[in-house]
Write a structure and sequence with these properties.
Largest sheet: 8 strands, parallel, barrel
Shape: globular
Strand order of the largest sheet: 2-5-8-9-10-11-12-13
Radius of gyration: 24 Å
Number of domains: 2
Distance between the termini: 51 Å
CATH architecture of the largest domain: Alpha-Beta Barrel
Bound molecules: alpha-L-arabinofuranose
């Protein structure tokens, strides 16, 4: 008996000190100072003719026994509809600058076969081309974002593609589109003028690119009812000079946006690390790399502010996400990687950063929707699974087109070795029906954190919550266990008249709805 009670006393002591040690963060949401609109297009996705993204992901062999529209698999489409995917970017990526659109129209069996020199040297049969991509967007209910070929294509070729897509009337190219089954113009508006023109898109200097942009953009015609939103190929990560030169040289009225690409890497480009077999060192390093995007967005935005103080030109982060080594046993050129709870923390943190910078970041697309890099969905023949990253986009869809509300807090550190990063990140918005959503991330792998949230200018009656968490940062959804990481109802909070106390578990993403 004595033994038991001293054991209990010791346990109580440990529990009490653990509770006392829990960090408390003072947090405020200010509904009196609404900010920019969080464009739904921040929640966009990228799907390149690469590996098993298009072929096998969206566009499957007729023998695959799953509901399909033509060869487009509808389970994937339905999953994307559920998270309200607003936009899909295609055909690349690097592939965009080797792609000739006329290869991908007309009778499928007559289309030329080309080698995908960027990704695995596999033969591309072009059965998925312009009309198929636009059918896919139509099924998903999203806007197409097409990246035109500036690297190996001519201004005429780019111009012809736009005429084929957007011209009404009876020009030869409009007639060709009609013959291929689409009577009305597609009215594609998001148009990329090249991709990574500093690298795979032609190895250009920013000066040369800016001049070429002006030349190509001249022939990107706005057909009646179909004005283009032209997006310049922007910087690689911290290449601030690229942004500076483009912003200086290109007419702001002829550039809807300029892109920026940044990938999260746990180690280095030669040894990116595994998507599933990693330790806390790599978890922490990936998180640190991910959070660096805030610095990039801030600095590119500051350069843009010099030339465009009214913020008319968007920063389009049209490639982002974690890039790991390809799964063992798969074609390394196909960039197939699994997706873990770590990736969910990365997605949620990045989206918080984009929300908080939505005055300038008006479009983003995660690389890449299905079976490639930080995918939302993985497929294996008839089977399909939703990744932890998918669930983040599901939880965060409430921010689409909502008004940003400023949040204030000092994050405690998440320390690893001699290094540290902020453990908490967050964003908040108010939707058109008046509901407020707060998305909170606790990236600390070990410690729960208590949030004392004060609401300024916000009356409310109900609070509900959802959480995405898992025991380990390496946890994944597999075809054997597809629901290991999935959202659950969250109720570990206490509401008072003017705020909330929330217990945010380690390694978690929480979205609260306040109405
Ligand atoms: O997303 C994979 C590749 O990464 C894209 O093709 C390219 O634009 C970038 O370098």
């Amino acid at each position: 008996m004595k033994k038991i009670s001293s054991f209990l006393a010791a346990a109580m002591l440990i529990l009490t000190s653990a509770l006392q040690a829990q960090t408390t963060v003072q947090f405020s949401v200010n509904a009196n100072a609404p900010g920019s609109i969080i464009s739904k297009n921040i929640y966009g996705h990228f799907s390149e003719d690469l590996g098993r993204c298009i072929y096998d992901g969206f566009w499957v062999d007729p023998s695959i026994n799953t509901p399909k529209a033509g060869r487009i698999r509808l389970d994937v489409v339905d999953a994307l509809k559920k998270i309200k995917v607003p936009l899909l970017r295609w055909p690349g990526g690097c592939y965009a600058d080797q792609y000739h659109w006329s290869d991908g129209i007309g009778e499928p069996t007559k289309r030329p076969k080309r080698i995908n020199a960027n990704w695995g040297m596999v033969v591309e049969d072009n059965s998925f081309g312009t009309n198929e991509f636009l059918q896919l967007c139509d099924l998903v209910g999203c806007e197409p974002y097409i990246a035109g070929n500036m690297g190996s294509g001519t201004p005429q070729e780019m111009s012809n593609w736009i005429e084929y897509l957007n011209a009404d009337g009876n020009s030869t190219l409009a007639e060709l589109r009609k013959q291929n089954g689409h009577e009305k113009p597609y009215k594609v508006s998001f148009w990329g003028v090249g991709n990574e023109s500093w690298g795979c898109g032609g190895n250009m200097t920013p000066d040369f690119y800016s001049d070429q942009y002006k030349r190509y953009a001249t022939y990107c015609i706005n057909y009646p009812g179909a004005p283009l939103k032209k997006i310049a190929s922007g910087a690689n990560a911290d290449d601030y000079n690229w942004t500076e030169v483009c912003m200086k040289k290109i007419n702001k009225w002829d550039m809807w946006g300029i892109s920026m690409h940044y990938y999260t890497i746990a180690n280095n480009w030669d040894h990116k690390g595994s998507a599933t077999q990693f330790d806390e060192h790599d978890y922490f390093a990936a998180l640190k790399s991910c959070l660096h995007i805030e610095d990039l967005v801030t600095k590119h935005s500051a350069i843009m502010d010099k030339y465009d103080p009214e913020k008319k030109v968007a920063l389009a982060v049209d490639e982002w996400g974690i890039w790991t080594d390809a799964e063992p046993g798969t074609n390394p050129g196909f960039l197939y990687q699994q997706n873990s709870m770590r990736d969910a923390i990365i997605a949620a943190s990045t989206l918080n950063i984009f929300n908080n910078h939505s005055d300038r970041v008006k479009l983003a697309s995660l690389a890449q929707t299905v079976n490639v890099l930080q995918a939302l969905i993985l497929t294996n023949k008839e089977k399909m699974l939703l990744t932890p990253t998918y669930h983040v986009f599901d939880l965060y869809k409430v921010h689409q087109d909502a008004t940003l509300l400023p949040v204030q807090f000092f994050s405690p550190d998440y320390a690893y070795g001699k290094d540290k990063i902020p453990a908490i990140n967050a964003s908040a918005s108010k939707d058109k029906d008046g509901a407020v959503h707060i998305s909170l991330v606790n990236a600390d792998a070990h410690s729960a954190i208590k949030i004392n949230a004060a609401f300024l200018g916000l009356g409310y009656k109900t609070v509900t919550g959802q959480i995405l968490t898992s025991a380990a940062f390496t946890d994944i959804n597999s075809f054997e266990n597809p629901n290991k990481v999935k959202p659950a109802t969250f109720s570990d909070f206490k509401a008072s008249a003017d705020g909330l106390t929330v217990n945010l578990p380690a390694l978690s993403v929480v979205v609260l709805e306040i109405k």
